[in-house]
Specification:
The structure holds two protein chains of two kinds. By secondary structure, chain A is α/β, with parallel strands linked by helices. Helices cover about 40% and strands about 25% of the residues of chain A. Classes of the chains: A alpha/beta, B alpha/beta.
């Protein structure tokens, strides 16, 4: 696998007003990585994700996609980058007034020249990929939380994105569904060749899928480790990181 | 956690329930002993830790506090809270705190409660600030709110321009659904309110006009008032409460569910996809509702005129027709178009500004209705004054 940088974060500071959430974040997500953003509750993991997907401008520092500085780029360029990413939100964030099929179809309708029949076929395919074949006509409120998440994933994959972001994919799922989702994530990375960025604090997921990571610390308000989570578990010098990755048992 | 059967566990019932009490023994060799006794339960009266804390300064020489709970018959969190507070006081006064004599369950819970020190920064800033600081923040908030509103109006206008050039990303089915919702579905309530407003206007006018024997002019009064302004205002107030609130609640809930974030990251501007169809629907339907409200108001007046003042039906209608000009009609339509824009702006702005909680959705809805009604009244005043100045 090539190690070409895909997302480069340099000297990023995140703040709400004057309250700094995290500062001095510098890391690189390589093409094809399954990159984990981890850390204890409330350390700003999801906030970092929202910075990466262009929802919150950084207080300081930059986020590069390839060679393009996201926040300095023109609106048109930003739009193009945004179209190349898919996001699975914590609770799915399906558009509740639309059926699952309409949810998945919307990006296809807006950004491709496919006709209705082609879109319908693609939608059925995407839903089948996440194990929801036959649920096209259901509304998000009519299916379970785990199914909403999978439908959210189908929507995130609608445009075959280069980068997939996951916000706490296994939160609220039973262990088996969580493992299946992990497998699905790996499968998608292999088959689509996508870069995957996952916010999570589920250790099982972290070790099962992650090959690169950044660890955010709420105390010092900065990153205190980066790299392969398995390597970090075995020989991180920082005790916070080590105890996090071993559930405080070592 | 508290399964070990020992003396004084929380569920130790069946004893004669003696009232909770606390007694301080004067310090001997620097040791102050606090005896606790009775039933320390949340449903009975229990002493407060302050009683002990107030006594401590009057008992000098204490360098160590020992708690003795051998006489406690039953306890729950009330006792725990008492002990934790006392412990915090002792720590502040540098008095050694000895809880060895307490039941093991309490000791463990006290340890748990004091394990993580309270974080200084986790207290929210903003409360307990001096008045001037809060006033300053409020003024800055108004400034920020105005800036946000202007930005929103600008964005809405850009979205509208994109719509005119056919480049806006929205779904036609959404637009039709909102138009159906803002138009035909609002007719029953508009009928009721406008008819009644027409009746009321006629009643109030009739009493005065009867004094001059000029009751026929009730027709003029009702027709001119309804067509020029009241039809538009009443329809707008109904729509602000009905549709403006619904818009704010819909968009607010979408904000809570991250649905709006999902649109943004998908490269679909919420301004075009969500706000534009709602604004178009209400701006198109408001004038229609206004005309309908005018007609209903005139019918309301007619009921009073014909039914109560014994005017002829034809006579009343002729008088109504004579009193109206096309200019009045256009003025009414102008009012209602302005109101439509205001209601849509207020509803969508407050919805998109919504925070990420259920109470924020409620606040957004309330704020949308209040903003819309204030805007409607202010706009009515301004337009009426302007029309007066230019003389139409």
């Amino acid at each position: 696998m090539s190690a070409a940088p895909h997302i480069v974060v340099t000297d990023l500071t995140m703040a709400y007003g004057r309250v700094v959430i995290q500062k001095d974040l510098t890391f690189t997500v390589n093409r094809g990585d399954v990159f984990i953003i981890m850390g204890g509750s409330g350390c700003g993991k999801s906030t970092l994700l929202r910075h990466l997907i262009g929802l919150i401008p950084p207080a300081k520092g930059s986020v590069h996609y390839g060679d393009i500085d996201f926040w300095q780029a023109s609106a048109a360029k930003r739009d193009r980058i945004m179209r190349g990413i898919g996001v699975l939100y914590q609770k799915g964030a399906l558009w509740s007034s639309m059926t699952l099929a309409e949810n998945v179809a919307l990006p296809l309708q807006e950004f491709t020249d496919l006709n209705a029949a082609q879109i319908e076929e693609l939608v059925a395919l995407k839903l089948a990929l996440v194990g929801l074949a036959g649920f096209e006509g259901h509304y998000p409120s009519e299916i379970s939380g785990g199914m909403q998440k999978r439908a959210g994933l189908a929507r995130a994959m609608a445009l075959d994105p280069e980068i997939l972001f996951f916000d706490e994919p296994s939160a609220g799922l039973d262990p088996i569904s969580a493992r299946r989702l992990d497998e699905l994530i790996l499968e998608l990375r292999e088959s689509l060749g996508a870069t995957v960025v996952v916010v999570t604090h589920e250790l099982a997921s972290i070790f099962a899928i992650g090959n690169n990571s950044v660890f955010l610390d709420p105390e010092t308000k900065t990153m205190i480790a980066a790299g392969d989570p398995k390597a970090l578990r075995d020989d991180a010098s920082n005790s916070t990181v080590r105890s996090f990755l071993t559930r405080g048992e070592a | 956690m508290i399964h070990i059967p020992e003396k004084g566990t929380p569920h130790d019932r069946g004893r004669a329930e003696e009232e909770a009490a606390v007694r301080c023994e004067p310090p001997a060799a620097g040791v102050l002993t606090v005896y606790l006794s009775g039933c320390w339960k949340i449903d009975g009266p229990t002493p407060s830790a302050d009683e002990v804390i107030q006594q401590v300064p009057s008992l000098p020489g204490a360098s160590r506090m020992v708690l003795n709970a051998e006489q406690v018959s039953a306890w729950d969190s009330t006792l725990l809270s008492f002990i934790v507070k006392l412990g915090a006081y002792c720590a502040a006064q540098e008095i050694a705190f000895d809880s060895q004599m307490l039941p093991a369950g309490i000791q463990r819970l006290v340890k748990l409660a004091t394990a993580v020190p309270a974080k200084e920064t986790s207290h929210r800033i903003g409360k307990g600030q001096p008045f001037l600081a809060r006033l300053g923040e409020a003024v800055l908030g108004v400034w920020q709110g105005t800036a946000d509103m202007l930005a929103f109006i600008g964005e809405a206008f850009v979205a509208f321009c994109r719509f005119l050039t056919g480049r806006a990303q929205y779904q036609r089915s959404d637009l039709l659904r909102f138009m159906w919702n803002c138009g035909p579905q609002a007719l029953p309530i508009v009928t009721l309110i406008s008819l009644l407003v027409g009746l009321i206007l006629a009643f109030v006018g009739a009493i005065q006009l009867l004094l001059f024997g000029a009751q026929i002019f009730v027709a003029n009064l009702v027709a001119v008032a309804m067509v020029r302004v009241m039809g538009a205002v009443m329809a707008a107030v109904i729509m602000a409460g009905r549709t403006g609130a619904a818009f704010a609640a819909q968009l607010g809930t979408m904000q809570v569910n991250e649905e709006i974030d999902a649109l943004k990251t998908m490269g679909i501007p919420p301004m075009e996809f969500l706000v534009l169809p709602r604004m178009l629907a209400i701006v198109v339907m408001m004038p229609v509702l206004c005309v309908y409200a005018d007609v209903m108001g005139i019918i309301g007046g007619l009921i009073v005129g014909v039914g109560m003042l014994n005017l002829g039906l034809v006579e009343y209608l002729n008088q109504t027709k004579a009193s109206l000009t096309l200019t009045y009609f256009w003025i009414g339509l102008f009012y209602s178009a302005v109101f439509g824009v205001l209601i849509a702006l207020a509803g969508c702005l407050r919805g998109l500004q919504c925070g990420r909680s259920a109470s924020a959705v409620g606040a957004a809805t309330t704020s949308a209705v209040v903003t819309a009604i204030v805007a409607i009244v202010v706009a009515t005043a301004v337009i009426t004054f302007a029309l007066n100045v230019i003389g139409i």
